[in-house]
Amino acid sequence: MIKEACESESFDREGVLGMEKELDEAWDEEERYWFAKSRSKHLKEGDKNTRFFHASTLMRRRKGSDVGDVILEYFRDIFSANDSCVPENATSVVDRRVTEEMNQRLTRFITSEDVKAVVFDMPIDKSPGPDRMTGLTCMLRDTEERRALTGIKIARDCPSINHILFVDDTLVFCKATVEEGKEIKWILEDYEVALGQKVNMGKCSINFEPRTSPEVRVQVLQVLGMREVSDQGKYLGLPSHIGRRKKEVFQFINVRVKDCIRGWKGKLLSQVRKEVLIKSVSSAIPNFVMNCFQLPIGTVAEMNKAMANFMWASSDGGKGIHWKA
């Protein structure tokens, strides 16, 4: 259009310049549009990169589509039901708890008043769902009664324990043998089929007794398909395994106390402010752990020493004199 206007007999210079200006603005607008869609931050708009921005957008869409397909396939595999039948050994070990009268009440027609009563009776921070861990408990108990699984005892004459359910975690105790490893493997497989819950082996781990030989460890790990850990770490801020070296286990408390004090040392604080910080912050750090465990004398002494040094230290960082009331 601009070329035709220039070649025409009634050439209008101002009109041609106006059209060129509108064309430049349209090109800039298109470039800004594709720059925003491509999300390319290493090139700046204004450099005539419209074709590059357009290609980047198409590439990102293809990549996003591939990622979306992977995510869709992953969750489809998790939440899809299979047509396999429920193993008989998974249902036969569960005691009958629903009577005929209870069954009639459960299968009757549900009214809107029933739904309202259930929903309004539910705590605001809870979500409804079946208690599927009962089935796992029954299967583990039946396996131990058949002497195919060995639990642990904290005393000679007390009953044995082969598992512990805590919140959404399960701890299973058994002998480090291939036979008992296979029993647990079969229980987990039957549990998945019967109750529709997948066991994430990536989050499962095994902690062996120190005297277990390396050969047995390798065999049990291969049977169960899990990873070995030296300890179970902390759970809800508390150590999962204590052992005999209690001072080393609870050393993290002193580390946290000393970290707090180290951050306060750089400030010019009066004795009153130091006392407030010690009573309100550092002394409160071990409270949660002390509700569950009795701390070793050495751990408490080290913690008191750190707080006393901070309390009586001089303004220039010296130790100072520890006064006693």
Quick summary of this structure?
This protein is mainly α and 325 residues long.
Quickly list its features.
two-stranded parallel ribbon; extended; mainly alpha; Reverse transcriptase; two-stranded antiparallel sheet; 54% helix; 6 strands; 14 helices
Describe the fold and architecture.
It comes from Lithospermum erythrorhizon (Purple gromwell). This is Reverse transcriptase. This protein has 3 domains: 2-78; 104-230, no CATH class; 246-312, no CATH class. It is 54% helix and 5% strand. The protein has 14 helices and 6 strands. It has helices at 2-7, 13-38, 50-79, 88-91, 100-107, 112-121, 133-145, 178-195, 214-224, 246-249, 251-264, 271-280, 287-290, 297-312; strands at 163-166, 169-172, 205-206, 227-228, 234-235, 238-239. It has a two-stranded antiparallel ribbon with strand order 1-2.
